Amino acid sequence: MPPTPLRDLFQNNLQDDQELPAKQKQVLQAALDLFAVQGFDNTTTKQIATLANVSEGTVYKRFKTKEQLLTAVLKPIITDVTPQMASEFKRVITNHPFESISDLIITIGKDRLQFVWDNQKELRILLGEILKQTQPVKEFTQLITTTIVPAVYHQFDQLKERNKLINWDNERIFQYIISVLLGYGARIVIFSSPIELEQTLTETAEFFERGLAPNK
Amino acid sequence: MPPTPLRDLFQNNLQDDQELPAKQKQVLQAALDLFAVQGFDNTTTKQIATLANVSEGTVYKRFKTKEQLLTAVLKPIITDVTPQMASEFKRVITNHPFESISDLIITIGKDRLQFVWDNQKELRILLGEILKQTQPVKEFTQLITTTIVPAVYHQFDQLKERNKLINWDNERIFQYIISVLLGYGARIVIFSSPIELEQTLTETAEFFERGLAPNK
Amino acid sequence: MPPTPLRDLFQNNLQDDQELPAKQKQVLQAALDLFAVQGFDNTTTKQIATLANVSEGTVYKRFKTKEQLLTAVLKPIITDVTPQMASEFKRVITNHPFESISDLIITIGKDRLQFVWDNQKELRILLGEILKQTQPVKEFTQLITTTIVPAVYHQFDQLKERNKLINWDNERIFQYIISVLLGYGARIVIFSSPIELEQTLTETAEFFERGLAPNK
Amino acid sequence: MPPTPLRDLFQNNLQDDQELPAKQKQVLQAALDLFAVQGFDNTTTKQIATLANVSEGTVYKRFKTKEQLLTAVLKPIITDVTPQMASEFKRVITNHPFESISDLIITIGKDRLQFVWDNQKELRILLGEILKQTQPVKEFTQLITTTIVPAVYHQFDQLKERNKLINWDNERIFQYIISVLLGYGARIVIFSSPIELEQTLTETAEFFERGLAPNK
DNA sequence: AATGAATGAGGGTTCATTCAT
DNA sequence: TATGAATGAACCCTCATTCAT
């Protein structure tokens, strides 16, 4: 079961929000779509209003600032991406611990790269803002390091115990894996180049299996 | 001998240009510095003029558009980064072919990561513009693939011949290596986090030595 | 017994009005308070609604325009200030005619300057709007001249008859007195500077007693 | 020789300013005229631009804010009104000391009331802003009290020495005189009601001559 | 060639006013 | 009747770009 696309998550979130009037939801949706395609700076509040079928005044009714609009758009993305990733790990941990580093890479990679592919546009906003070091994004990175990273390290430790993983620093191992996976992700987001997901991951797993095999 | 910082390369290039009037050179230099710190969108032509000690009109004497100014700033970066990287490989190739994948990673990594560290700001512009898919940047990526990639592949082939590298597709091998190295680069550019260059690379090399060792 | 503060007069008037719904009364009260502090231009209909514990729509239920709101606020002030001032004179006239110009100045001055002190804020609106030559304010000045002025002139005449006042034009005498008294008033309204009421008036009376003594 | 109208003083000042481009002068002149007629809040930068035959951008070229424009307009008024008034006193002091309180009132009154009459509009801006307690106006009042007031007090002292003025506190005497004179001024500014200057002042002087005569 | 004043379209934002519920 | 979401004109201000000097 592939992860839900961000845009859908976003929309669901909006619909669940009882307080937010319909038009305000349209505003957020329009802002998301426009920011994703044109970037924050190159998007006009007028454009947002038009795409949302709403007057410009309505855009400012709830969100007092264009900046606040960005935050409102970014926040659900951030708060959804992170917990989902975290839960992904936790779920697998409790249900059936990873048999091998291969297992871990393929399971996570499949899920997350699919997610990236499904959400190219949305993630491009994130990337753009990361480069600007916007405040909400700083929180994001911190969130990642406090939730996901420990979960992964825990997995590493378990694999090490069962002698399925080389006895290097968790940080070091994480670095390599995350770099390669993010490398794929970056190519998707930046160049929209498709990936032969299944095979690519199998090969990648094979590589890490070699590189991270414990010394016998 | 560490690679020359982009800013110096840029300046040298400017001074060599006989056609460009002095004031125009100041303009380009100012534009580079400001774009790097504030980004393209958040930089004013007035700011450029002021920093360049030049009138606003002068900024537009040669470069008819702010966009053209960006191009003019980006182009030397692109055309300098690429050949240098290419020549880096070629030089090492001709002088003394890499003894091992370790050798390659450490040599190249040392050089390029140092380069990244020295040019964080400038590279951040590049990254920002890459996300916007600006025209000059598309050329950049193409340039890379036509000059650097073949050079590296050639190295891979040689290592394979001498049975020092596993017989996988060059592209696949390249993917892994470039991902890990760019991973370090990204961390530098985005978070300005320093790196224990020497040791990091030695460890990284060790990892790849394992992962990419030929089947015996 | 000091004169009732305008704000209270205003409130009483509102409560007496049977036709006006409770919420509308709250609106007027809020408008008065806000206009007094921030001025008409710098007060938002939203602010009025909020302070009145009422929706923005309700503000416009009866008063079709922000301008009408100002009128509605100004009118009771005007129609209350003036009659009260007029009756003040008349009352004193009928009860016990002034013994001297001193008597008149001290009696009136005490009452009116106290009034000014108690209603600085409200009067500041009036002054501000006077400068803009708003319609309701024109009525105000007219009202003053038709009610108060004759009452005072009548007093002057009586004093003259008893040889207690110089035989100058009433208008001229009025000018001097009103100027000095308004001078005190202005200082209060503009600079909020307190006044030693009792002594100041005694001294002022002494001055006028000299300046306006009849030729013997 | 009547005092130069503010608008002319203003214009002269502008023309003397070598640095200020012609269009900027038009901007200030237009701002002055519009503020005087409509008040600050009700004047649009677009209106200013139109009246000045200038683009809206030009309005903001030198004056970064509408508020700064007000300051720029107010400053010359303030800095011209005050010194002129001060010098008026000083000039008369040195040349020929006032013979009597009559002399003082007529001399000063003539000059200043003429000035008020000639500059109704401009002074109305001042008054409007005084009520708002804007910063530049606070300086104004302070300037008055530190320059003019002492000069007048000095005159009072001299008259007292020569037994031509009652021995009251200078402040008290000043109060009465200024109130009556400002009373005339206010009527001019607010109601544009003309004054029979010469006669009015003669009468006023007579009144003060009585009220402020020394005890024999 | 260089200046910097001038332009004017357009951006973000506010707010009096309207109207569906 | 009361609500408050919605409107849209207009405001202040910015800035890439032009042009007279």
TrEMBL record, chains A, B, C, D:
Residue ranges of the annotated DNA-binding region, renumbered to this chain: 44-63
Residues of the HTH tetR-type domain: 21-81
Pfam family, one: TetR_N
Entry-linked InterPro entries: DNA-bd_HTH_TetR-type_CS (IPR023772), Homeodomain-like_sf (IPR009057), HTH-type_Tx_Regulator (IPR050624), HTH_TetR (IPR001647)
Matches recorded under PROSITE patterns: HTH_TETR_1 (PS01081), HTH_TETR_2 (PS50977)
UniProt-recorded Gene Ontology molecular function terms: DNA binding
UniProtKB keywords: DNA-binding
PANTHER family in alphabetical order: ACREF/ENVCD OPERON REPRESSOR-RELATED, ACREF_ENVCD OPERON REPRESSOR-RELATED
Protein name from the UniProt record: TetR family transcriptional regulator
UniProt organism field: Lentilactobacillus senioris DSM 24302 = JCM 17472
